[in-house]
Automatic annotation (TrEMBL), chain A:
Organism: Streptomyces albipurpureus
Pfam families: Sec_GG, SecD_SecF_C
Protein name, UniProt field: Protein-export membrane protein SecF
Coiled-coil intervals: none
Subcellular location: Cell membrane
Tagged with keyword Transmembrane: yes
Region of interest: Disordered: 324-381
Subunit architecture: Forms a complex with SecD. Part of the essential Sec protein translocation apparatus which comprises SecA, SecYEG and auxiliary proteins SecDF. Other proteins may also be involved.
Membrane-spanning residues: 26-44, 141-160, 166-186, 247-270, 276-300
Recorded name of the encoding gene: secF
TrEMBL record, chain B:
Protein name from the UniProt record: Protein translocase subunit SecD
Compositionally biased region (Low complexity): 166-181, 191-215
Species per Swiss-Prot/TrEMBL record: Streptomyces albipurpureus
Organism ancestry: Bacteria, Bacillati, Actinomycetota, Actinomycetes, Kitasatosporales
Recorded name of the encoding gene: secD
Subunit structure: Forms a complex with SecF. Part of the essential Sec protein translocation apparatus which comprises SecA, SecYEG and auxiliary proteins SecDF. Other proteins may also be involved.
Residue spans crossing the bilayer: 21-39, 398-416, 423-443, 449-474, 502-521, 527-545
Family affiliation: Belongs to the SecD/SecF family. SecD subfamily.
Amino acid sequence: MSRLGSIGVRLYRGEIGYDFVAKRKFWYAVSILITITAIVGLAVRGLNMGIEFKGGAVFSTPAKSNASVSVAQESAQESSGHHAIVQELGNGSLRIQVSELDTASATKVQKQLSTDLNIPVDKIDAELVGPSWGEQIANKAWTGLGIFMVLVVIYLAIAFEWRMAIAALIALIHDLTITVGVYALVGFEVTPGTVIGLLTILGYSLYDTVVVFDGLKEGAVGITKQSQRTYSEVANRSLNATLVRSINTTIVALLPVAGLLFIGGGFLGAGMLNDISLSLFVGLAAGAYSSIFIATPLVADLKEREPQMKALRKRVLAKRAAAHARGDFSDEGDDPSHGDGDDPEPSDGPFDAAPAVAAGPSSPVVGPRGRGRGRSSGRRR
Amino acid sequence: MAAPNRGRRPAGAQGKPGRTLVLILIAMVALTGGMFLSGHTTPRLGIDLAGGTTITLKAEAEPGKESAVNETNMNTAVGIIERRVNGLGVSEAEVQTQGRENIIVNIPKGTDSEQARKQVGTTAQLYFRPVVTVAAGGATPQQPPSPAPSASSKDKATDPDKAGDKASPSASGKPSASATAQGRAVTEGLKAPATTSPSPAASSKAADPKATQSPAPAPTPTGAPATTALDKQFATLNCMDAKSRATIGDGAKPENPMVACGSNDGGKNWEKYILGPAELDGKDVEDAKGQMDQQRGIWIVTMDFTKGGAKKFTKITSKLSAQQSPQNQFAIVLDGEVVSAPQVNQTLSANAEISGNFKQQEAQDLGNILSYGALPLSFEEQSVTTVSAALGSEQLKAGLIAGAIGLALVIIYLVAYYRGLAAIAILSLFVSAGLTYSLMALLGPGIGFALNLPAVCGAIVAIGITADSFIVYFERIRDEIREGRTLRPAVERAWPRARRTILVSDFVSFLAAAVLFLVTVGKVQGFAFTLGLTTLLDVVVVFFFTKPLMTIMARTPFFAGGHPWSGLDPKRLGAKPPLRRTRRTSAPTEPKEA
């Protein structure tokens, strides 16, 4: 831990840090590239929808045929190239469902099953089967998603501000697009499990973004009252300060899913697990990535357009130029001696978190007031 | 949510952390105890993991209407059956068409398949028809029933409170018509509290507008029925015979008068009716539910009408109330059988109820069925048989093994990074997992909750999200220590802010769960339920377990002394120089959050 721990300290202190916001153009480009790939993949290859959505063919073996489930599954899967769902009925017959087959390949599957299971072809019934996840379910799911997105934007706009709401929404769409795109590219079958996985991501992606924004909001309290840092710099500082939390959370959430995907799906060969855990894995990773690399820089971008923030930037730059002229350039105003920007009364800050911050210089997020300066804290006491 | 001044009582919470811990432990013990007492020690598994029962239904084409068995109607039927068997979306039942005229319903193991069969098989074609004639159920020529004295129930609609009182007088005045024929539910069946149901979506295709205009085309004086053919049918009908009961209502068009049977006492005695054309049908019902009538102590099904339905209902009841008995009776006909035929004494609106000698389950099932509407086709049950799991046990096993390995990795990581603090995190995770497990096990029999493979995966991810709450809190504490505080003040100061973050972010998750649960159906709804449950548990665990445990642990020398293995060693965390630290500690703890 000590190594990682000390990195944590230094991140927290702002001694080290990655300039997420300044390098945002690069990460935007990366994301756009990935998103385009995903969309192209989606357009070209399309999604391989499972039998649950599209329906397919169902083959039934006669009662008391005592055919083996695993043999039937293998046989049907190999001859059709699709997932097969095999169930044994109470009377000993098998029900084998295969998605989307035309008549020719259905016959092929039927023949293959007949050979492998040792049952005459005419004893195997073939019928079309409808989707169990019908249009009605899908339509309602879309409606639900739409309503949720509207509500969440409204909520975030109230709890934070509209810029953050928009950034969170963009990040969310980014995550979902990437995940869906990966499905198109890998060609895994989309099952109800996949959809559930996608919905889980929807929840997680927003959750993660909100945690990061919460830190950002706190860090930006009273930002207009100082002339040490621009909004982008403050945003970057808060990102770095919450970075340890972001990394830890992502690792903790990803490890079990990675277990499902690589061990459960890979080594133990559980097909359905692959479908679900892949969407979860990709989505969780994308969600963590977008909160840091996309959502927050986007907020900074939007914020910098605000007249107040523009003015702030001007002030900061002017001050730095002056300091530079004096040959006393202080990097980002991080030098403790620069306490003059501190605002002892930050409660008039733009956000309701102000009182909590006012209670002490304890902000883990590097605030604009120069964090943890003994002097300022002494003043307050 | 998460307003800054929210919960300004950390003093209380921090003062008695032990009490909070005891509370949650009691809750855990209670849940686990309930789990063992009810005998459901494992969550019910979905059909993909545990198999279940499969019911094959075959659409029955009515003579002359073979074309009704088409794709559209089949799909509508699938949608309705799906909602009937999976009303809350958590039961994991699957419904699909097979071939041209079959519908397959898969129900996970452990569901009451008898009940399910009833639910899927009932057509639920509901009509409201005015009564023309009523007689004892036998095949004997009918006696015109003497008018039922209805004076007693005059004020009924205006004063629902009195409904109970009236039950007895009106009971005595029931169609004494027939000593044999117990007039069924005559008086109490229709009740209309003065509210109107403000429901949108008024559709009433089946109720022929013409029929609506002329509410009672048949009500010629008692004993002079509408048509002779009907009369003859009525005379020969023997309602005591189950077979003729079952077939008599078949093929009756809503716009024509019909003959039907009904029983008032759960099937011992039967009456037969001649009924006028349908005035309202199931589509005019907005919502229905089975509930206990407190005054009478019986189970009834109440129905709220749609706007259009309420209008029609008002119209017809105002006409009926002017009639003599039995023509002031309004029969509620379900699948060709009269389930209730109350008298109408004044104009009613908005809602009605069916009181037909129901058991609790029957009333609730009927309410459920009526809410989701009638099937466009009638179905015959072809086969009911067990079906094995689609995924098989090895999939679940693989999933569990992989999940366990993943969790072990999480624990290793937490220990490596948080050291002593990891013990608190891991304990919290176990509490969270224990609560989730026992709740899911209890919800199986409770609301038919079933776990499928995606839900198992979702639960594993949820554990990661729960862990995030601890991580947020721990990082805050460490930040406070870096500021130079000693552990106890750090723990208390970190909490309000960690709490805010946790509440805001969990609120977003909960919002997703609530919206999806309310709007969607089927598996998505089931997912929303699980998400909402785990989100709530996250908040519960962090507030009532992690935080108090942390407070207690902060008092132990191991943590407070900053033992290198505690994960809170100020030196390792790079705390401020001791000089300032001492000053800090001597300072009285400030208001946690002002």
